[in-house]
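Exam revision sheet. Question 4 asks you to relate a sequence to its structure. Input first:
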Amino acid sequence: MSVAEEVESSTTGLKIMVIDDSKTIRRTAESILSRQGYHVITAVDGYEALAKIAEHEPDIIFVDILMPRLDGYQTCTLIKHNARFRNTPVIMLSSKDGIFDRAKGRVVGAEYYITKPFNQDDLLGAIRRFVPMHEAVSAEAG
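Answer key, structure tokens:
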């Protein structure tokens, strides 16, 4: 089995949600992640995301900070206050790279922070960082 096949077999079926009001960002992330064998669910804002999270139960969530109606901080807070999704890793996406923004992300429960524009290595690196967490949580639940 090649390295690419090993990576795909270990990640196939992993559900990843990308929440961003930018169609370009959603399509870019979906393209990168789909090529790696991930099942990608997208949402344009926090309200749409909350309904889809309950329906699809993603394993990892990427959320933009600056969105209309319900921003990324508010969305993350609501996810983390739900007992069913409390342990789901949330990765903040932002064009801001300030210490205040990163700290605020931590306060609302985000596990990681990626600055836009991101690349394939940024997204895949963040997922790899949390796949062991995902497996550990699944093992505990099973």
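Marking note for examiners. The chain has one domain: 3-128.
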